[in-house]
Amino acid sequence: MGQFAALLGGNVALALGPMWVRLADSGPVSAGFWRLALAVPFFVLLARMNRQPLTGAPRTVLWGVLAGGVFFALDLSSWHLGIELTRLGNATLFGNAGSILIAAWGLIALRRWPHTPEWLAFGAAIVGSAVLLGRSLQIDHTTLIGDLLCLLAGFLYTFYILLAQRGRAVLGSWALLFWSSLIGLPVMAGFALLLGEPFWPTNWGPVIALSITSQLIGQGLLVYALRHFPPLVISLALLTQPTVAVAIGWIWFNEALGPLDLLGMALVAAGLVLARVAERPAAAPLEGEEGP
Question: In Å, how far are 85, 138, 267 from 133, measured between CA atoms?
Fold first, then answer.
């Protein structure tokens, strides 16, 4: 029971992230920088407590971790920019679109055509995304740009997962999160400065809450819980994130949803569930890394 509560709690904590990004008075990419920076010391402590090495990995592993950290930073930057421009439910669903791409990569690696559940996953995700993108275009061109940025984040996250697989196996989840965050800091700082964003918060509350909920509580609970459940349970628990995000968007930011929005979200969510169930072990997500 405690493990299932941790699984749900981790997803709920991650779903709070977009709200804190919106409320931060720094820029969205700058908020991502502080999200990582404030968590780095805790990752060092957690890696040490779990006897995970922070140094001494082979050079080939380090190069993969380095490249993965860059993609992780680009993923967060794109997602945080998208959060500012689209609805929270859309941002959360599209930010998790990497699950579909990872499943597709697994099929390419296995050199086979999709089975029926995989075709259904791809079809549902594509149709649902088309519905949501069409609705965003009806609302405002800016909202459509936000959706596309969140989709780009899911694409970049796929590269992070694939590049970091070996690093996780050699270093461990906490050590990998430490290195991914540390490598991502200069990338996100440079990107924020390039965009001319406000960098230093005047109100530290939202960025501290973002770091605690998204990086520490969310990741920590999922690192603990994911190893205890099969893909179906994990994928169904993942749907907690868009549900919470939609509720926050409606209550806090007055983001109302129509029937077509709900249909599109349901189709994308179904695609995510089917993709997670169909994943092969070689392409499974890292423990503690359930989307941005």
Answer: 13, 9, 13
